[in-house]
Amino acid sequence: MALASLMLLVTGSLTAWGYSRTAHRYYTEWNYFELGAHAIVGHHTNPLYAGGGLHLYVTNPQLQIGPLAFLVIAPFEWLRWSTLAALFVAVMALIGMAAVTAAMSTGQALRGSRLASTPVPIAIAAALVAGIWGYNCATWRHLDDAIALLLSVAAMRLILARKPWWLVGLMLGTAAATKPWAIILVPVILALPRRDRARTLLVVLATTAAWWAPFIVAAPQTTVALGRYIVLVEPGSVLHLLGFRGTVQSWLRPTQFMLGIGIGGLVALRRSWIAAPLAAIAVRVMTDPYIYAYYGLGPLLLAFLYDCSGESGTGFPVFTAATALVEFVLPPMRPGSTATGLLKLIWALGILGFILFRRRRSGPRELRYDDLRVAPLQSRSLVSA
Question: How many domains does the chain fold into?
Answer without folding.
Answer: 1
